[in-house]
Structures are given as C-alpha cells and as structure tokens.
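Let us work through a complete example step by step.
Step 1: write down the sequence.
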Amino acid sequence: MIYYSYDEFAVDVKKMAKQIRDEFKPEAILAIARGGLTLGHSLAVALENRNLFSLNSIHYEGDKKLDTIEIFNVPELGKFKKVLLVDDIIDSGESMVEIKRELLKRYPHLELKIATVFYKQKALLLPEYRVKEATEWVEFFWDVHI
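Step 2: predict the structure and record it as tokens.
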C-alpha cells in the first residue's frame, strides 16, 4: 500500500490543471462521489470554474469490488458542451465506462474528458488527464478513518 499525501496532491493538481486549461477548457466539472470530490473541488478552484457538480457511483465497499455498479444523483448537464469527469482513481475502469455510457445516453451532445490522479494501465479506459500509475492499493490523505 502507498500513502498519497496532501503535499503530493497539491503539486499534482497544479500540473493537471495547467494541462486541462491548455488543452480542454471544460465548461463544467463533474466529480464522482466520494473519491472524486476532493480532486473535483481543487480543479474547480484551480481552473476558476464554478460549474462543479457531482454524481454518485458505487462499485466498491471499502477495498472489495461489488458485482454491481450503481449510478445515481446525475445532475442536469443539458446546457454544457464540454464536461470534465473527475475521480480519484481508475482501477478496472468498469465504473467509468458505465458512468460515461449513462451520461452520453442522457446528454449525447457532451464532449467528455476524464481526469484522475491515479490510473491502472490494465483499465478498460485510460483518463485523458492523469498523473500517477497505481501498481498497488492507494491510501488517500482524504480517506480519514475515525
């Protein structure tokens, strides 16, 4: 297991935001709760974008992958064309494939790009904006266990 600290995150967000600003300029940011909320908020601040939304997706319970993918609380995105979809990590990619499919079914006009801090090379899809390859379980600084 590796620990991903706030200090690393702060550097990575600046790097990612610059690349996104230069290449994509999203009209809205859609963070996947819960893992994508911290990155989504930080990118919204860095990109000076107040159109920050979230949706819920459940495919893991702790570190156990579930047999189903539940997607709910999808926001109204009809007035946007370019949306950045944000999560903490793409592991298998199964959740992201389903989320992308659901969004494009509801909003076929969207240009969707994906941003994650971590990704696994074997995933079904790779994010357009990514920083680190995950080769083991990642413990994020925002996953505080009390």
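Step 3: interpret the result. The beta strands are 2-4, 28-33, 52-61, 64-72, 82-90, 111-119, 129-133, 138-140.
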